[in-house]
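We append the chain.
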Amino acid sequence: MKSFAGVFVFPEEAAVSEGYLVVEDGRIVDFARRPPKAGEVIPLSGFVVPGLIDAHVHLSFSGGVDPAAELNAEPLATTVARAVARLRAYLEAGITAVRDLGSREGMAVGLARAVDQGDIPGPRIVAAGRAITPTGGHGHRNGVEADGALEVQKAARREFKAGARALKLMATGGVMTPGVKAGAEMFDEAELRAGALEAKKRGVPSAAHAQGLLGIKNALRAGITTIEHGAFDAWDDEAFRLFRETGALLVPTLAAPAGILEGEGRVPEFMVEKTRAIAERHRENTRLAYQSGVKIVAGTDAGTPLNPHPNLARELWLLAEVGLSLPDVLRAATLHAAEALGMSGELGTLAPGAFADLVVLEANPLESAGAYARVRQVVQGGEVVRA
């Protein structure tokens, strides 16, 4: 048994308390005001929050100006080696868990297994394997093509057989696939429901790439757990109502369009054109969703053009810019993100029973969204991984 002494920031109450977090076998046992009578006491200097979570990454993408083209030009072994290096960078940035929503040949499933078994250092990974898309749909070059509810069901089962712990479905077109209209409906409600049901049977989250209003509503009616992006079109009252009724979460990934627009002249022009048309709408939809009571989750879409690994500090800054309160910015990267990963109670909290994943920030995140860029120490499973 050991204890960590410091100033702790509890996301549930958005409260700061000085004390001792008691840890045994990698999990939190208790929070005490006084020094424990037994065991090692490890001081943490700064403001201690639960390990941060990025709920939308692509570990096989580089974050260069055209990641998909780079990916298709390099050997798989090179992609895997580079992804392993990225994992250490996530830990250094205080990100102790991620959700990978689509990787080359499902390689993130293997990375997750290697991290869990202690073979390589890195954040805990909830991997969706390969994304599932209609024939010729968004992400088809590195995803699984399926048409009709039965094919989607079979494709989902194959990904789960391969070890996936989440499911990614393409409800609409997107920015990075040439020849595909961003925001246009792809999978219909029945197809999305087939995938969502397979995920529900296994007690794991389902995610829908959904940028157009019709696709978002299809995904919500189908029982999808998280809506990714939500960028195109002005949302109507029905969309907000469906979010509230289903309890679905929104993962805006504001860092993704920001990177593309900043790369104008270097990023492929078709991506810039698609993004320019919706960037402000994207921010407005996020603001309105938050104001209507939708839970917002921090996810970066890291790996997309000029959206590097890791980039969570920037995403949290952008969420504050569109109107999230500082307590809700913290919850977006902890409590709500843990829910998106299907790991509520185990991640994103300092409560007993949770993994002892901790991040020590130089500044108080309840006073500045910039605090997440200044990481002092990182603890994962009760072990200091950045001193």
